């Protein structure tokens, strides 16, 4: 059913203005971005198809412009550009927050930021948040990439990048493409190795966060640091 044929209180735009964005489902919010559907397919149906294809909002926000291009109805550049722009705005907003406030004061923001950056990758990525003496974000760097099951991380390179940024602390991070955030024995061993290496140059490891679509685990919160 086209949006114009829905009752006014069921149309996403009117519903958002009357009741706030929290009253809308994911497909309704996405429909507002897409604006129009296709012949024989409403914008709400197209929105739901996108959510199904990318396994929810988190997966969709991590989709590249090329990923979106394969969806019928997104072959043109305008809608794809808008969706990619939404992701970039979300990343920049979270990065700005982390630059202004200590990472330890906003653990949920740190996890959300890392999820946006890493969670939907098809391969394993190891990254580090480099922080200043007040634990505010200096930079996020993806340092190593691996296969679906493992990655090789070189402590010397992590130490060199910390020195380059004149960081006082780091938050380590990597993704689990399998979807589970449970740390492996290798994850625990790597964390301790990096913690010892960075301690030699007086850089603290504050946390090691494992992300997957829709979830994140803090090794510090689990007592594994």
Automatic annotation (TrEMBL):
UniProt keyword Zinc, yes or no: yes
Name of the featured protein: DNA repair protein RadC
Alphabetical keyword list: Hydrolase, Metal-binding, Metalloprotease, Protease, Zinc
Record has Metal-binding as a keyword: yes
Domain spans labelled MPN: 103-225
Family: Belongs to the UPF0758 family.
Species annotation: Ottowia pentelensis
Domain of life where this protein originates: Bacteria
InterPro entries: MPN, RadC_JAB, RuvA_2-like, UPF0758, UPF0758_CS, UPF0758_N
SUPFAM superfamilies per the UniProt record, alphabetical: JAB1/MPN domain, RuvA domain 2-like
